[in-house]
Specification:
The protein is α/β, with parallel strands linked by helices. It folds into two domains: about 10-255, Metallo-beta-lactamase, Chain A; about 265-405, 3-Layer(aba) Sandwich (Rossmann fold), CATH 3.40.50.360. It is about 35% helix and about 20% strand. It has helices at about 60-65, 85-90, 90-100, 105-115, 195-210, 215-225, 245-255, 275-290, 305-310, 330-340, 360-370, 390-410, and strands at about 10, 15, 20, 25, 30, 35-40, 40-45, 50, 75-80, 100-105, 130-135, 140, 145-150, 160-165, 170-175, 230-235, 265-270, 290-295, 315-320, 320-325, 325, 345-355, 375, 380-385. The strands form six sheets. Strands 1-2-7-8-9-10-11 form a seven-stranded mixed sheet. Residues about 120-130 have low confidence and may be disordered.
Length: about 425
Amino acid sequence: MSNPFEAVRVTDHVYWVGAIDWAIRDFHGYSTRRGTTYNAYLILADKITLIDTVKEPFKDEMLARIASVVEPEKIDYVISNHAEMDHSGCLPAVIDLVRPKKVFASKMGVKALGEHFHPSRASGPDDSGHDVVAVADGQKIDLGGMSFSFVETRMCHWPDSMVTYLHEDQVLFSQDGFGMHLATTERFDDEIDDWLLAREAAKYYANILLPLSGFIRKALDKVSSLNLPLAMVAPDHGPIWRKDTAKILGLYARWAEQKPTNKAVVVYDTMWQSTAAMARAIGDGLAAGGASVRLLPLDGNHRSDVATHLLDAGALVVGSPTLNNCLFPTVADCLTYLKGLRRKNLIGAAFGSHGWSGEGARQVHAMLEEMDVAVAAEPLAVRYVPDADALARCRRLGLDLAGKLRQHVAASQ
């Protein structure tokens, strides 16, 4: 019987042996409309090595790709750069099948694997002789004619995170860093449209790595100080970067700074179109004041799309009607999600229509303050349907915010 899955050659010594998930549409609340890949890499050296595994349901696909190059039982070493289950889900099964001489992980990785799977092999030798070895930051191992170095990148994006560098082929295996959720049969960045790479890389950073930007900056500085030549950057999701590795590193450096721009994001939901009318008037005022504006009604935009737009913004303006004396549920959901992502250096304001009570806009205002958004105006609340005077006030709010946004951007330079 022929093998339905084949490995993809990355270099003379490295093969991609991961899996493609065409169906996934949600990843921890992040909309993955284009699916994803779970990347694993096979290195052919005297000591054959597997870097990371895949999500448990895709174990057979990964093993089939490995088998197209070498019998899985010939693998000597397994490296776990990151213990999250989409990269370690089938690790216990792989260890049972392959019976490698060593499994390498960071010190925190050993702990995380033990707490995920609870076998004795995750904390030391078991009765089969398997062993998960904690490698030190900067440690180098010899594969016989080839060598790896390990660099700890804690909190990029878990405490266990590390990257692995293959010296001879100049490949950085970067776990979740520099990745994206994109299901495709193309394995390399130069095979995919630039606009799609930019969009999905930004979305990935905005929705997963943004709250860890301080750690990202330190990790970038750390890797840069090692002066490692990078022919390729091979992440655990999405395509392998080989066309211009400096480009994606530069984007991460810029995103990690979280500097504000002259872009304003207006997010809202509406019950009877009154809050929507206010949003349009505010957006018109922002545009008239020189801001670049994005209106994002939540009935047509996922919270992860809002987060992506905020990655290169300077203002967040949020509108909510009042329902049962509270802000609207979709707005509460979006703000709770954004609060966890901790986008810095934003100014903002709240608005909304209400009936006999007006808690919605006030509660949005309070949540913006909790998010450390510099609130630039008192909440603008309108009772029932906004008339011409009310819409004029909305437009003036937009104009005023545009001016304050310009000042905010200038002060951050």
